[in-house]
């Protein structure tokens, strides 16, 4: 593929709704990351996968956030019972190498607005 | 806790002027430092990393462990350098890249 693909690009949700954000990493990339970027801020780490294993989920802000990568390729970030403070751009990045040893390739992000 | 600080939210310079985007970090060990850039309507991308010791698009950055800094420099700014610049730190290869808040560089003609 051309790069990391994220969908939907824009999502408007009513408070309390569940949302699912999808990330298609570059083929063959073993590492996959999710970041949350609030307006005017830098990206904040959420979670990291090495193939299908979720090795670090220390950045997930609450148990309403859940991420999976069942087959070591596509990943989904799910947010349950969305709150207004969840409004942000959610960035996915992938890397050919383990962890941050290699360059991270970012998607264009999914912009979530919670009303 | 590990932290990256970019003190300037906005830096405005004229074309041809020198540029220095400041980045300070807090970490007691041996971190790996990066600069990422986001041009208008484009995705975030790697500009350079300190272990490569490269000059990319005329930009350089030197890791100063004594001052815990990793400032990004370019001797002569170009209009196409206008973008958001993020300094980032990794302190283990587990994947946690910590970003600063970013500095918007505006290069005026």
Q: Can you offer a commentary on this structure?
A:
The complex is a heterodimer of chains A (115) and B (109). By secondary structure, chain A is mainly β. Chain A has a single domain (5-99), classed as Immunoglobulin-like, CATH 2.60.40. Chain A is built from no helices and eleven strands. In chain A, strands 2, 4, 5, 6, 9, 10 and 11 form a seven-stranded mixed beta sheet that branches. A four-stranded antiparallel beta sheet of chain A has the order 1-3-8-7, with no helix packed on it. Chain A is globular and about 40 Å long. Chain A starts with a strand and ends with a strand. In chain A, 34% of the residues are buried. The mean pLDDT of chain A is 94. With 109 residues, chain B is mainly β. Helix content of chain B is 0%, strand content 44%. In chain B, strands 2, 5, 6, 9, 10 and 11 form a six-stranded mixed beta sheet that branches. Chain B is globular. The interface between A and B is medium-sized, with 30 and 22 residues.
The proportion of residues forming helix of chain B, as a percent range, comes to under 10%
User: How many domains in all of chain A?
Assistant: 1
Examine the secondary-structure arrangement and name the CATH architecture of chain A: Sandwich
Per CATH, the class of chain A reads: Mainly Beta
CATH top level label of chain B: Mainly Beta
**What would you say the CATH architecture of chain B is?**
Sandwich
Name the helicity range of chain A: under 10%
Order of helices and strands of chain B: EEEEEEEEEEE
What is the average of the pLDDT values of chain A? 94
| CATH fold annotation of chain A | Immunoglobulin-like
| Gross geometry of chain B | globular
């Amino acid at each position: 593929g051309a790069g990391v693909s994220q969908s939907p690009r824009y999502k408007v949700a009513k408070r309390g709704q569940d949302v699912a954000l999808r990330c298609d990493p570059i083929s063959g990339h073993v590492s996959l990351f999710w970041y949350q970027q609030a307006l005017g801020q830098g990206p904040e780490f959420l979670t990291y996968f090495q193939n299908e294993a979720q090795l670090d989920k220390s950045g997930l802000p609450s148990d309403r956030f859940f991420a999976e990568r069942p087959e070591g390729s596509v990943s989904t970030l799910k947010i349950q019972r969305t709150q207004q403070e969840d409004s942000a751009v959610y960035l996915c990045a992938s890397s050919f190498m383990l962890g941050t040893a290699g360059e991270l390739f970012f998607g264009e992000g999914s912009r979530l607005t919670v009303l | 806790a590990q932290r990256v600080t970019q003190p300037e939210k906005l830096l405005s310079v004229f074309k041809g002027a020198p540029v220095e985007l400041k980045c300070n970090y807090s970490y007691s060990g041996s971190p790996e430092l990066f600069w990422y850039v986001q041009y208008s309507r484009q995705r975030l991308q790697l500009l350079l990393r300190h272990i490569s010791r490269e000059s990319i698009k005329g930009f350089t950055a030197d890791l100063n462990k004594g001052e815990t800094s990793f400032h990004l420099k370019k001797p002569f700014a170009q209009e196409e350098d206008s973008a958001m610049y993020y300094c980032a730190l990794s302190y283990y290869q587990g994947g946690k890249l910590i970003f600063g808040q970013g500095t918007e560089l505006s290069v005026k003609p």
